[in-house]
Predict the structure.
Amino acid sequence: MNWDRVEGNWEKVKGQVRQKWGKLTEDDLEQARGRRQELVGRIQQRYGQKKEEVERDVDRFISNI
């Protein structure tokens, strides 16, 4: 799935994102609203990972849904 589709289907995708990254709050997901960089930043903040690691993980996750 590409990011245009993620943004367009955010209500469906955010449940899967929440399952993968359970530390994200509902507010985190609402703030991200399908925007890649916002989602990466929120995950990075909650999990304390490097930006490059999170970007790889997010891209891998999105390509598998």
